[in-house]
Amino acid sequence: METLKRLKNPKIQILLGLGFCVLVALLLHLFQVGAQLSRTVLDKQFIRMQQNSVHRLQNDVVIVGIDEDATKALKEPFALWHPHLGKFLDAMAIAKPSVLGLDIALPERSYQFLIPQYDQSLVQGLQKLKSQTPLVLAQMLDESGAFRPVHPPYVSAAGADALASVVVCPDDDGVVRRFDPNLCTVNAQGSMLVEKMAAHLGKTNPGTGLIDFSAGDKFDYVPFLKVLEWQARGDAVQLAGTFGGKPVLLGVVSRFGDRARAPVPLAAWDPFKLRVPGVLMQAQILRSMLSDGLIRQANSFVVGALTLLAAFFWLGRIGWIKLAALVAFPVLLWLFSTWQLERGMYWPIGGIVLSGVFAFVLRLFHEGVQQVTKRHWLRDIFGSYVSQEVLQEIMAGNIHSGLEGQRVRLCILYADIHSFSERCEKRPPQEVVALLNDYFAEMTVAIHQHRGTLDKFIGDGIMAFFGAPQALECPEKNALEAAQEMLLRLRLVNARLQEQGIAPVEIGIALHVGELVTGYIGSKSRHEYTVIGDVVNLTAKLEELTKTLGYPVVCSAAVAKAVEQSGGLVDCGEHEVKDVALRVYGWNPPRLAVN
Length: 595
Known about the structure:
With 595 residues, the chain is α/β, with parallel strands linked by helices. Helix 5 packs parallel to helix 6 (120-130). The strands form 5 sheets. Strands 13, 14, 15, 16, 17, 18, 19 and 20 form an 8-stranded mixed β-sheet that branches.
């Protein structure tokens, strides 16, 4: 019980909520729940950076593309392109690039059984180029995931260490964003093609990290057929001007070749496609290694600390300032992470943002529950004064509170227990309080059922009024029916008293009508909805006549006239009530007589 009381303490609830938000933030970080959001943000940043061309290379990677025109012009199957590849290698020997990577599937076997000396042109081309330009050959995967073999004479001609893998490793969403051979088991077996090319250019041990997609503009390519044309006519100037001193990659760019999904478009000839030829991905990785290096990821502990710190969005009440802070929070993270990305550091902000948003939404939900609870509490409190029907109308805004006060014609009901002071002196206090609570509970129901407003309890007396805050067609009729209901419910109370061996009670009820002032009366810190006017005092005095006239209900002539003396009202003549002569009517409710 004590624990439940402590849990209701607002300070304890705030601390528990903060602890829960910190726990959720920790789980978000450990399980990388915001990874996809981080990737989406990263892709947008790369697109923006690529458009601004943050990094440019003086000797950019040159791509020689095998396109549809080449496959149409060269009739042999690609596996028999030995003479054409030999001519390409001769062209590179003339051009003297800084390094050459062949991102193509070299033949697995010899075809000299078809045509004698058919392999020689390719072997000689490799040998000739090897003597003056670093050469790296691609090693592809077969359908089983193992490396496809390359015909040994080609490997021998290029050098035993020339082979390297070209397999790239995508993230969980299939997009290639990082260079990390350990992500793919097969890639961990030896160096990668771009690693070896970078090493030949003095960039050893590039490590792992994100590919810098802001390095350079979109790629264009030199058609394979164009290179063969320059070689055929011996155009050394053109070859040297295009390839001399630059890293060169030969690969397939036709729509039938292998493709990888990039976060940004890489092909100038297809500027909106994210699925790009594999050779373009290799070229972009090489660009990253040759410019400022691969992008490093921020320290995981620092990112985790920021994720936990974002959980403190739980603190502070929800308001415009906090909402503005929540809106500014991801924007500032975006700006900071973009600034860091341009400097070679990647901050995964997805988990940080989710942590802050979760804490904000949870606090919003918490305060919403508190508001609903408070609203229900207020409904319960105010519902003890007016009927549920009237309360619903007030909560719906259909009945105004009358804070400035207004004059309204109302019917006042005043009820009192006869000889209750004597009972209080003779009976135990617990019995007196229990009796009053039972009595008031029944009387309140009777008043509310007939759309009356309970004003107050005055000792053992009850004062209520009819006609405000909800206007009634005939408040006198509602009051008279409520009086009858009260007497019927009094029988239930007396039956329960009799079971306990306690003497029953008798009550008198008075009704009077007139114009009164209604409104919220009191100070700013304490006020109540009530009525003011002499009619209230007259009604209280009128109730005393029930003891002498012998009627449980008495009313003024104004009330009797309003109800057209329905239900057997009896004229009891004029009586002086608080120095005012009133014609009084007595009433025994018909339902009471029947029962």
